[in-house]
Amino acid sequence: MSEQPGWQLDRASAELYERFLVDRVTSIWARDLIGRVGLRPAARVLDVACGTGVAARLAAAKVGDGGRVAALDVNRGMLAVARSLPAPEGAPIEWHEGSADALPFGEGEFEAVLCQLGLQFFPRRQAALREMRRVLGTPGRIGTSVYTSIDRNPAANALAEAVDGHLGEGASEAKRSEHSLADPDEVSRLFDAAGFAGAQLETVTQTVRFPSVERWIEIQFVATPLAALVADRDPTQRDKIVGLVSADVGEALAAFASDDGFAFPQEAHVVVANC
User: Fold this and answer.
1) Total structural domains in the chain?
2) N or C, where is the chain less crowded by C-beta within 10 Å?
3) What pTM did the predictor assign?
């Protein structure tokens, strides 16, 4: 991932997300999820809530030229970036715009479904999982990950607290929503109700690394929905807000910073189930 200093608000948020967050965060979880699902050569795979396509690209390499990979997201901007990136080796990727609770595919069309860090954002989670079950053949396999509670993710928690402290109570809602499906029992019930057999949930911790706390905070304010909080501010105000938030987060997370950079734990529930 190339690094650029300062604010880059002249670029689409999806492009910034791909540039600044995929290599350092989402690719870690994508590799973990695909490894757990165990994709075989020539398999037919669907990636739901694909974002800019990191899991789909890794899946394409795994299944090879004889496989099929379809990737779906409701966000047109994310898909535009996904389509613009060089095609990976392996299976060609079909990019689809659509909702997870109304998948534009036939019954039993896929052998594996991936949904990385997306289920927590769906307004109709149960309907979405039932749709994923519908498009899976028998045997079929699904792999899903969702972040655990924010108080078990120290970096996200410190950021949310600092954002609320400087921008007002509730300003951190977008960050906190990433952790809205944290109860493992609730996650398991969703899979059971959707008709998946023997869902296995494991709570997993990965280490996320950035050059510094300050750099991580800058990226949060340009490449995530938190950017909307400062989009209308002039550069001086934006820099002041980022500086204040960085100072608070740096103090709260001093134990995770060193001369080698900023490395913090990130925790998620990972579910693999069969049908």
Assistant:
1) 1
2) N
3) 0.92
